[in-house]
Amino acid sequence: MKIAMVGAGYVGLVSGVCFSDFGHTVVCVEKDENKLAKLRDGQVPIYEPGLDQLLEKNMAGGHLSFTGDLAAALVDADACFIAVGTPTRRGDGHADLSYVLESAREIADAMPEDLVVVIKSTVPVGTNRKVAETIRQQRPGAAFHMASNPEFLREGVAIADFTRPDRVVVGLESEHAEAVLRAIYRPITSRQTPLLVSDPETAELIKYASNSFLAMKITFINEVANLCERVGGDVETVAHGIGLDSRIGERFLNAGPGYGGSCFPKDTIAFAQTGRDAGAVQSLVEATILSNDQRKSAMADKIIQACGGDVRGKRIAILGVTFKPETDDMRDAPSLTIVPALQAAGAQVVACDPQAAHEARDMLPGASWSNGPYEAASDADAVVILTEWNQFRGLNLAELAACMRGTTFIDLRNIYNADEMDAAGLDYWPVGKRPSLS
């Protein structure tokens, strides 16, 4: 099949590269000239493990190319995927569809007959029909087919998620669109991966409901962690105990500083707003959003408490600032709340991150940056693990303690245990457990 991918951001680039690796011919359309130049030169503008090698392989094999000319990309195309950004719209919480609708108008001007227009971007219910109407207004009488195909990619493992997903969801009302999408996804469905076909509205809701449920699961265990700290429980054992129930499962039950990233924050807000507008308030999602916001602020308070209730003039090392490991994504990362709160309380923050320092410098003004955890810990009164990068999982704690001025180690990801910390002479403050003071 020949595929045009409008937008070479995170979703569009990962999807386009993976489709090309299936043997399809993919042309990714990118308007940003700087990004386009890098992509044409084989450079990946985001950090996603394995994506650079896959991109290079398929460009060399002739299956993948990049252009700024949408009309050229649409020549003889079987399908055109819209994978542009849908950020939260200021004022009302809805997803901003301006980029999606702009893409629809541009596609209408250049599309061949019977093109299948597929919305890959995360969009609120009803967007599929809105895009169809936009195309009809722009080009009355043209023959085309609409489909919704939400993505379920986790940053850091996106290639595996795309090539071996739990399911592929498509929402459509056209036999031709279904046939084209079945052909595009045949390399996946041939391995018994379910392809769920629904109407467009249902497909759009599946995406938002999935992310909102996972966000609720994370928030639930974080609230349980608060209770464990008050009554003397161990949140990891609680999570394991409830996760062994097959109806619940253990995934997404790791207590921490709250969720962030490009999906959960904006998708929960948009889903909640859709519920309000439809007169079907999503009260659990509303509570999740509030609780997660409070969680990030509470983690700053936890750090201050661990430092004796006052961080004025103290040097605090922050290990990891991205919202999760194996990505350079800073969107809605807990660090964007925690670091400024510590600075406002008078702390001197020194941070290190394997991938995000270049982007985070401007987002965390006033913080100083180091090249690694031991350099960051030098003369620090406290060390905080904020993102569970592999580089921070096997620290030489004795060496780290020798670098530090103080003895406070705050583990917001529960990577270590009290015995390890005690052996190194460090005071250990985990999440959802009793602190262990050496």
List keywords for this structure.
438 residues; alpha/beta; N-(1-d-carboxylethyl)-l-norvaline Dehydrogenase, domain 2; Rossmann fold; 3 domains; 14 strands
How many whole angstroms does the radius of gyration measure?
Answer: 24 Å
The spatial strand order of the largest sheet comes to 3-2-1-4-5-6-7-8
Tell me the number of structural domains. 3
Inertia-based shape: elongated
Beta-strand residue percentage: 5-15%
Please write the CATH class name of the largest domain: Alpha Beta
Percent helix range: 40-55%
* Count of distinct strands: 14
Largest pleated sheet: 8 strands, mixed
CATH topology of the largest domain: Rossmann fold
Mean pLDDT value: 96
Name of the CATH homologous superfamily of the largest domain? NAD(P)-binding Rossmann-like Domain
CATH architecture heading of the largest domain: 3-Layer(aba) Sandwich
Structural category = alpha/beta
Kindly, what is the distance between the CA atoms of the first and last residues, rounded to a whole number of angstroms?
A: 63 Å
Task: List unreliable stretches of 5+ residues.
Answer: none
